[in-house]
Amino acid sequence: MLSLLNIITSVCALAATAAAVNPIVVKEQEFSDSVTNSRFVIIGIDYQPGGQGAYGTNSGDPLSNGTTCLRDAALMQQLGVNTIRCYNVDPTLNHDECVSIFNSVGIYILVDVNAPVPGLSIDRADPSSSYTTSYLQHIFTVVEAFKSYPNTLGFFAGNEIINDVPTGQANPPYIRAVQRDLKNYIAAHAPRTIPVGYSAADVREVLQDTWAYLQCNNANGGNDTSRSDFFGLNSYSWCGNQSSFTISGYNTLVETFSNTTIPVFFSEYGCNNPVPRAFDEVLAIYGPQMTTLSGGLVYEFTQEASDFGLVQTYSNGTAQLLGDYDTLMSQYNKVNVTLLESSNSTATSLQPPQCNSNLISNDGFSTDFNIPNPPSGAEQLISSGVSNAPTGSIVSVTRTSVQMAVYATNGGQVSGLKIQPASTANRPGQNGSGLSTGAAASATASSGTGSSSAGGNATGSASGSASGSSSASSTGAAASASASSGAYKIGAVGFAGGAVVVGAAAFAL
What we know:
Layout: H1 4-16, E1 24-27, E2 30-33, E3 39-40, E4 42-46, H2 66-79, E5 83-86, H3 96-104, E6 108-112, H4 127-130, H5 133-146, E7 152-159, H6 167-189, E8 196-201, H7 204-215, E9 230-234, H8 250-256, E10 264-269, H9 281-285, E11 295-298, E12 311-313, E13 319-321, H10 323-332, H11 337-341, H12 378-384, E14 406-407, E15 412-415, E16 436-440
Parallel strand pairs: 4-5, 4-11, 5-6, 6-7, 7-8, 8-9, 9-10, 10-11, 13-14
Antiparallel strand pairs: 1-2, 2-3, 12-13, 15-16
């Protein structure tokens, strides 16, 4: 019989290790929880600390530093976020720590497969020359890195490749070709179907045609793998508290996508002119007028040169919450989540139109639905898989308390910041009344460089690197390392007369 100490140890560890969230599937117009069948609406934030300029600098991958991810996941959990988007990931690094942390708090991940360097993305000026087997090997390696995580929501095959009428001529067939290749690779090598889609620029003269081209069915009665599974929209048309549902053109977007047969959502939103941002659009995006759409992701979590951040981070691991963080939390807390989770049977029984030139309204946009064949060697690569590709897996989350100092907008240090285990998608308002702070601290950012004092990994058995800095900034208050290794305590617990059986779970303290 298990000793009382062993039982308590196991129960404590189970409390600190969340069961995996359920994978998300696409049901025509909606995302859906694959187990509960509840509708899933994205309440998200774009997450790329350091920006795309940090890619390849050993600090540009947002999901390879467990200590940083623990801090940010705790702040996002309090905010109410259920999804993040990561634009540039290095598939050769180990992401187990970070992805497991986000999984444990009910946060899904949308991953862009491309990278901001020549040869690792489709060149909108010359798509045919950049559609190569070496390019496909890179994006397939990204799939390998993230295919086994249950909280991988989907992959973006492209971002704003089409940004005007001229780029709407040659590029659409290649976007569909990349989507086809990704979906065929996933079908051959992933343990489940993972959605693949596209993130579009909000250029109204080509927006509807881009969506129409990518969502139509190009197969004669069969399964069209080149078709988008979802459609993201990078839109900044709602600016300030003087805007509205009609001034912003949101009413036009609802009309445009009213008969969509794939989920449509804002893959970026949050105009920052004027500042500070009021985020009044949140109640429209998640309100009854826009239930056709599937939510959105605010741009962005960390403060970068473009001034869209919710949180200012420093090289020593400390962070300062900005006013936008508090404002966004306030707006999120007004959202009616019950409304969002109500599935529409009509929306999940739609059939896509057959691809044809009549779907396209702009004379300069492509009506060519002859999708390019894979480049030489690609079909063999899809069949055999990428050799020796690192494949991620969920590991136990053993540390839940944030080890570095985080300061609230009032200057006070946030106390007791930690992640809380969850087995369902995170949502606004479910993690208490907000962050707790002490008196305003004298922790104004110093001009010296800092180094994180938060030693140790935030997860158990991950074997990869976790050495990247989450920010290019070199100032910040000194980091605090006062966290304990476990945030959950069990008081007087009695066990008698039987064995305790726990299913598939990892136990570690």
